[in-house]
Design a protein that fits this description.
Distance between the termini: 23 Å
Number of helices: 13
Helix content: 25-40%
Shape: globular
Strand content: 15-25%
Radius of gyration: 22 Å
Length: 410
């Protein structure tokens, strides 16, 4: 095989973002992907006429990097209503940021998930995170997310019944041990934008990034066996390159770089995709479980984007951070919520994703170096923060580091 300007290993969001930035800078990268499609953990399959994402996923419209590199209008984003429906004490209650949905302020104030002090703490935290640039949130003093919520003054009930399930749905950490910096970033995204899905599924996001690249830039179904500063071994053949970016998950990157990328572990999620004749919710809102138990979130995708179903049936995503939960446990919990009608819901697919997000413990640099001692470059949400925005930022940073080195070398 002939050589290339830059070889990118991995066609997830980070790898595609890196390739896109390299093209903007005048380079001609090639991207090798092990699986049969680009997108990494972000993809959509059509199963029995339903659009099933790789587990329940959303994108925040306030993500700054996503807003910069993606064409949101072309993605045809469909927004969930702000706030959430919370299951508490056997009933469902709507809870919303009073600044974003003032019409719901009275209803939210009556919801039994927190005190008046908790509602004031929401406003106080909202003002706090909106007072500085989003990137500066990651240079703040750091604690665990749970400690941060305690310090702000939220009551244990507010944390356990609402904020815990809310942030668990986004970080898959039910103990809230993740960084308070990431908590502040998520809270800012919730305060300034919407959770959304593209009308045709999350898989259109990597497809849009790939469409910005020339044909034959991305090669799927390719096994990269090893990497070095100036070449990779692809299916037994050497491919030379001026630079190599490893844009895989942390575990694969750790293996390919001989331990230069520290793999700190991952958190998992399981999503049950179910079809029902009628939707169990009337509004396009995410349902949180404030009662404890196996379920964390429920979302009816067809209430947000009817295109997720081809026959008018409701498509329901039920998620839990407990990867090995059983369908019996899930259905028993749902029957407790919605009654015997749940027995008629058809299970379309179960996604058990053991490495859904990288762990980002307290004390890790949020802007980890994208250049390794060996001269390799690395990208992925494990180098930035565990989000789609983090993956896109890391891809851009890796590409810019490559350009800086190549310009010095030329």
């Amino acid at each position: 095989m002939s050589g290339h300007d830059v070889v990118v290993v991995g066609a997830g969001l980070a790898g595609l973002a890196a390739a896109r930035r390299l093209r903007e800078k005048g380079y001609e990268p090639v991207v090798y992907e092990h699986s049969d499609t680009a997108g990494g953990r972000v993809h959509t399959d059509i199963v029995d006429g339903f659009r099933l994402d790789n587990g329940f996923q959303t994108i925040f419209t306030a993500y700054p990097e996503a807003a910069r590199v993606l064409d949101f209008k072309a993605l045809d984003l469909r927004m969930f209503d702000p706030g959430a429906v919370v299951r508490v004490d056997g009933e469902f209650h709507r809870v919303c940021d009073p600044m974003r949905c003032p019409g719901e302020a009275f209803r939210s104030a009556k919801a039994p998930v927190g005190t008046l002090r908790d509602k004031l703490a929401v406003l106080r935290m909202r003002r706090d995170v909106r007072s500085i640039d989003p990137e500066d949130l990651f240079s703040r003093p750091e604690s665990t997310a749970r400690a941060r919520l305690d310090d702000i003054g939220f009551s244990p009930k507010m944390i356990d019944k609402f904020l815990g399930p809310l942030f668990t749905g986004m970080t898959l950490d039910p103990d809230l041990n993740f960084s308070s910096r990431h908590l502040d970033f998520i809270f800012l995204m919730l305060s300034t934008g919407d959770a959304a899905v593209p009308a045709l599924g999350m898989g259109v996001i990597p497809r849009q990034l790939e469409s910005d690249l020339p044909v034959n830039t991305v090669h799927c179904g390719v096994d990269v066996e090893s990497v070095a500063r100036d070449h990779v071994i692809v299916d037994g053949s050497r491919v030379d390159a001026s630079a190599v970016i490893v844009a895989t998950d942390a575990r694969t990157a750790d293996r390919l770089t001989d331990g230069q990328v520290e793999y700190r572990g991952s958190v998992g999620v399981s999503t049950w995709w179910m079809a029902a004749e009628q939707a169990p919710t009337r509004r396009p809102m995410i349902v949180l479980n404030g009662e404890g138990g196996v379920i964390n979130t429920l979302a009816v995708l067809t209430q947000v984007a009817p295109e997720y179903s081809s026959d008018g049936r409701a498509l329901i995503a039920v998620s839990t951070p407990y990867v090995h939960s059983t369908e019996h446990e899930i259905r028993a919990a749902l029957i407790g919520w919605y009654g015997s009608v749940v027995e008629s819901w058809e299970t379309i697919r179960v996604d058990r994703i053991e490495r859904a997000l990288p762990i980002h413990p307290v004390g890790i640099d949020p802007d980890q170096s994208v250049r390794l001692p060996s001269g390799l470059f690395v990208a992925g949400d494990h180098r930035q923060n565990a989000s789609m925005n983090g993956a896109l930022v890391s891809g851009r940073r890796a590409a810019e580091a490559v350009v800086a080195r190549l310009c010095r070398d030329c």
